Amino acid sequence: MKVLSAEDVRRAVPMSTAIDAVRDAFRELAAGNFVLPPRQIFGDGTVLVMSAYHSPTGTAVVKKIGIALDQVPAIRATVIWTGAGEQLVADGSSITTLRTGAVVGVATDLLASADASRLTLIGTGAQAPDQVRAVLAVRRIAAVTVTGRSADRAATLSRELAHEFPDVKFTPSTSIDEAIADADVVCCATSSATPLFTADALPARVHVNAIGAFRPTMRELPRDLLTTATTVLVDQREAALEESGEIVDAITSGELETADLVELGPALSAPPPATGRTVFKSVGIGPQDWAIAAALARA
């Protein structure tokens, strides 16, 4: 049995590899090759259990997540991957941030302008760095603006990322509206219960990723963005309808239809419109964890 630490995960699976693995997993999902039970939620969302079984290989992944938004880190998780005669146990927090970044990389590659050069990151928590790494892996980003509730944390994260990506200009900001005004790509990675901005604050052509809100009571995106976007992409329609506060709100209001939601897996074979304002809303599903764990098992 392999037991892997967070450092082991990072060494074995760089972001470019993670993006390719997650993209392939969503193609497999679209082909019907996963058995995907509903996520189990305990303690008002403080404990989650996710699983996925890949029929062609007979391999499975189970992840247990503990969430405490008032602590650092907010997410603590363990992943177990099982194959024929082998088992892997790995740090699930690093896998979660890596696979969440990777799916944003897949969606950004699908929907963002090919010449996108300006990224705005909203949020400075544990998920934030992998959001930047993923977008930089699929687009030639020249400038990144980092904004969040804490100016000090935005400045610290900007310095850390600038050290990792010396050819990219990183600028901390305390104004979300100013930070997104000329962005080509926006990544939202917060635990906000209310929308972070209005659609009017965005450029006419922009791609927005939102990964922070994972409960029906949470919202990062404004309703008017979802109802006016050219494409609203989700990792899985069923999961989004159950867990995404933004999606639930827009559909309950009658301003967005379930049929308006485009699933990522099928979209890889039949790309949706990538003009105007596009949105990717992710709540995370088991095949993403399976993809990273399978890559670890091969390493």
How many distinct helices? 11
Strand/helix succession: EHHEEEEEEHEHEHEHEEHEHHEHEH
What is the helix fraction of residues, given as a range?
Answer: 25-40%
CATH topology of the largest domain: Rossmann fold
Give me the CATH architecture of the largest domain, please.
3-Layer(aba) Sandwich
User: Rg from C-alpha positions?
Assistant: 18 Å
**Distance N to C terminus:** 14 Å
> What is the CATH superfamily classification of the largest domain?
NAD(P)-binding Rossmann-like Domain
Task: Flag low-confidence runs.
Answer: none
User: Can you list the strand order of the major beta sheet?
Assistant: 10-9-8-11-12-15-13-14
Q: What is the count of β-strands?
A: 15
Strand proportion: 25-35%
Reading off the top of the CATH hierarchy, the class of the largest domain is best stated as Alpha Beta
Q: Any idea how many domains?
A: 2
Index terms:
299 residues, alpha/beta, ornithine cyclodeaminase, domain 1, Rossmann fold, 8-stranded parallel sheet, 7-stranded mixed sheet, globular
